[in-house]
Amino acid sequence: MSVIQVHDKQFTPYINADKLQARIQELAAAISNDLKGEKPLFIAILNGSFMFAADMFKYLTIEAEISFIKLASYKGMKSTGNVVQAIGLDEDLFGRTVVILEDIVDTGKTLSQFLPQLEHQQPKKLLVTSLLTKPEAMKFPIKIDYLGFSVPNKFLLGYGLDYDGLGRNLPEIYQLVENA
Ligand code: HPA
Ligand code: MG
């Protein structure tokens, strides 16, 4: 098999480009059907979601807007623990249909902190789309309205996902070879 090496680790092909694109087309079709006439605002969470967001957005057949944000996590006061701050979110969400685009939801921690901040702005709807999720890793349950693939709790690479900065450009998803 076509094993690749990134930094010190080896990875094998896990979800090929055709399968990814086919699934993303299905998600885009479902969203286009469900949100017809709502002019949804997609909020893509960088860095990981950039490739998924670009493909998803191309497959949509409805009018829609997209905005790209980064989430910065910093230590809050002792009582509040970590706090997530959105960088680059300029849109007013009041009364809007909002669709979050994530590459992967694993523990759910970041979204569990971020979604309430968005709800605070009183969007009409707040939906979550994620290409991937790892149910075994989920500690803060997040309702994913549109999900690409449910995967085991193993490290993945490619199609936006990185290993220490590298591998995001791979057009398919690879899985870590353990004990290699
Ligand atoms: N790979 C890369 N980045 C990630 C992963 C993963 O499996 N899970 C959460 N961030
Ligand atoms: Mg990363």
From TrEMBL:
<keyword id="KW-0328">Glycosyltransferase</keyword>
<keyword id="KW-0547">Nucleotide-binding</keyword>
<comment type="similarity">
    <text>Belongs to the purine/pyrimidine phosphoribosyltransferase family.</text>
</comment>
<dbReference type="GO" id="GO:0046100">
    <property type="term" value="P:hypoxanthine metabolic process"/>
</dbReference>
<dbReference type="InterPro" id="IPR005904">
    <property type="entry name" value="Hxn_phspho_trans"/>
</dbReference>
<dbReference type="GO" id="GO:0004422">
    <property type="term" value="F:hypoxanthine phosphoribosyltransferase activity"/>
</dbReference>
<dbReference type="GO" id="GO:0032264">
    <property type="term" value="P:IMP salvage"/>
</dbReference>
<keyword id="KW-0808">Transferase</keyword>
<dbReference type="GO" id="GO:0000166">
    <property type="term" value="F:nucleotide binding"/>
</dbReference>
<feature type="domain" description="Phosphoribosyltransferase">
    <location>
        <begin position="20"/>
        <end position="163"/>
    </location>
</feature>
<keyword id="KW-0660">Purine salvage</keyword>
<dbReference type="GO" id="GO:0052657">
    <property type="term" value="F:guanine phosphoribosyltransferase activity"/>
</dbReference>
<dbReference type="GO" id="GO:0006178">
    <property type="term" value="P:guanine salvage"/>
</dbReference>
<dbReference type="InterPro" id="IPR000836">
    <property type="entry name" value="PRTase_dom"/>
</dbReference>
<keyword id="KW-0479">Metal-binding</keyword>
<dbReference type="GO" id="GO:0005829">
    <property type="term" value="C:cytosol"/>
</dbReference>
<protein>
    <recommendedName>
        <fullName>Hypoxanthine phosphoribosyltransferase</fullName>
        <ecNumber>2.4.2.8</ecNumber>
    </recommendedName>
</protein>
<dbReference type="Pfam" id="PF00156">
    <property type="entry name" value="Pribosyltran"/>
</dbReference>
<dbReference type="InterPro" id="IPR050408">
    <property type="entry name" value="HGPRT"/>
</dbReference>
<dbReference type="GO" id="GO:0032263">
    <property type="term" value="P:GMP salvage"/>
</dbReference>
<dbReference type="GO" id="GO:0006166">
    <property type="term" value="P:purine ribonucleoside salvage"/>
</dbReference>
<keyword id="KW-0460">Magnesium</keyword>
<dbReference type="GO" id="GO:0000287">
    <property type="term" value="F:magnesium ion binding"/>
</dbReference>
<dbReference type="InterPro" id="IPR029057">
    <property type="entry name" value="PRTase-like"/>
</dbReference>
<keyword id="KW-0963">Cytoplasm</keyword>
<comment type="pathway">
    <text>Purine metabolism; IMP biosynthesis via salvage pathway; IMP from hypoxanthine: step 1/1.</text>
</comment>
